[in-house]
Amino acid sequence: MEPLKPVSPGARIALGAGFFAVFIAAWGVATYGGYVPPLFLASPGKTLLAGWSLLTEFGFLGDIAVTIWRVVGGFLIAAAVAVPLGLLMGAFKPIEAFFEPFLSFARYLPASAFIPLLILWAGVGEAQKLSVIVIGSVFQLVIMVAGVAGATRPDLVEAARTLGSGRLSILRRVVIPAAAPQIAETLRLVLGWAWTYVIVAELIGATSGIGHMIMDSQRLLDTGQMIFGIAVIGIIGLVTDLLFKAANRRLFPWAVL
Amino acid sequence: MSAKTLRIAGVTRTFPTQRRAAPTLALQPTDLSVAPGEFVAILGPSGCGKSTLLRIVAGLDRPTAGQVLLDGTAVAAPGPDRGMVFQSYTLFPWLTVEENIRYGLRERGLPEAQQAEIAARFIARTGLRGFEGHWPRQLSGGMQQRTALARALANDPEILLLDEPFGALDHQTRELMQELLLEIWEADRKTVLFVTHDIDEAIFLANRVLVMSARPGRIKAEVPVPLPYPRDWTMKTIPEFGTLKARLMGEIRDEVRKSLA
Ligand SMILES: Nc1ncnc2c1ncn2[C@@H]1O[C@H](COP(=O)(O)OP(=O)(O)OP(=O)(O)O)[C@@H](O)[C@H]1O
Ligand SMILES: [Mg+2]
């Protein structure tokens, strides 16, 4: 091991998989070894069995689909608002000065605290679920996008000006392309947060979704189902993360991410 | 052949106070006239206001007093009539070499075919053939600055403003770049304002060398370079070159010493 020396792709995958193995082994030792009572923590085998019955008998795939739909929907709404606004704020300082103080206040409002209000306003339907995700992510996203856009290298902006670019052209041809890879990274991060919000939203007043299933399992004290539900979220997160990273590499081959 | 006369009239720049420190006078009232097609080198110690002067001509910075006139018209903002190559690398990292060179052409809305034709011409002239599709991060420093030069030239500016464009390059690359620039200038005779702190470079390239004083900068001496064009590297070995160099060294040594004092 040398400081900052990169690892080969093969070694990277092996090491990454290695910790999963260690983690599952430790879980197995704790449960099969009888160190933790089954009431509190199901064993890996029990969890898989519970998952199998969830998928085949209880229509869990439908819950997964509903939850993914909510996450993607809420996330897209948040991004559609936050990315343009953030870009404008980053590029034009008066716009930033106008919104920034309010956003700095709003970003600290916990999305989960809005759930009772949102149920009052929007009922327990999809609008309420989406709202929780949007409230949870949009303010953070705007601030982060504005930060990225505002960090555009000023010498590149100046170079563009000497080449004849006006204000809008600088936004379109310099600020946006310069910020794009970082914005994509930010979106990847915030999509992860959206998953936390959707589950919170589904724990209260929902009739479908992964969160709702976890809540139901708690009533039955079925830790296997609960853990399986949580693990599914993790797996979906891992997959979207990999997809996002691959897409970013293809979209921004010029960047050294 | 460019046709506009550049006149710098009483241009002064003071940078405002930062946290109770005294304001910085970067540039004392400066006057300068540059005829169409002239190659003027500005020589001066670090921090004497060379970049400040060039940025004001480019329209990127505003003078505290005085003005910059192009054929009698005051410049207030940057424009494609004044192309600039910066001290730092400023290629757009998300554009390839060719796309970087086309940047200003696209801005002007030229038809694709014409953009491609102009870009190809400057790619050839700056020796970048075979690298059209490379990203800036795949290029050496010398190639990046050649691309930056091609990008500025492709726009066909009246005046070329070069702020130590070769300052970050190694000695050999630098000399090759000087010859390349000279070749281009000898063919096009564009007005050039070239900032440097390298005396050899200034004499080798320019028809006229201006020496700036230590901060606050002003033009303290003006030295014509009566060496004929076309020039090549052998020029650096002739006695006249040595005489000019000795004179400029004398001028600049005092200033560097002052800037360190
Ligand atoms: N934006 C600014 N704010 C405050 N002071 C500045 C600013 N830009 C330049 N200065 C000051 O003005 C003086 C001249 O700066 P300038 O960059 O023009 O020097 P230079 O001759 O180009 O130096 P170098 O050869 O190192 O590039 C310096 O003392 C610098 O500290
Ligand atoms: Mg400088």
Report on this structure.
The complex is a heterodimer of chains A (257) and B (261). Chain A has 257 residues and is mostly helical. Chain A has a single domain, classed as MetI-like fold (Orthogonal Bundle), CATH 1.10.3720. Chain A has ten helices and no strands. In chain A, helix 2 packs across helix 10. The two termini of chain A are 22 Å apart. The model of chain A has no long low-confidence stretch (mean pLDDT 92). Chain B has 261 residues and is α/β, with parallel strands linked by helices. Chain B has a single domain, classed as P-loop containing nucleotide triphosphate hydrolases (Rossmann fold), CATH 3.40.50. In chain B, 36% of the residues lie in helices and 23% in strands. Chain B contains seven helices and ten strands. In chain B, the strands form two sheets. A six-stranded mixed beta sheet of chain B has the order 6-7-8-3-9-10, with helices on both faces. In chain B, a hairpin with an 8-residue loop joins strand 1 and strand 2. In chain B, helix 6 packs across helix 7. Chain B is globular and about 50 Å long. The N and C termini of chain B lie far apart (43 Å). In chain B, 41% of the residues are buried. Classes of the chains: A mainly alpha (257), B alpha/beta (261). At the A-B interface, helix 7 and helix 8 of A face strand 6, helix 2 and helix 4 of B. Magnesium ion binds next to helix 1 of chain B.
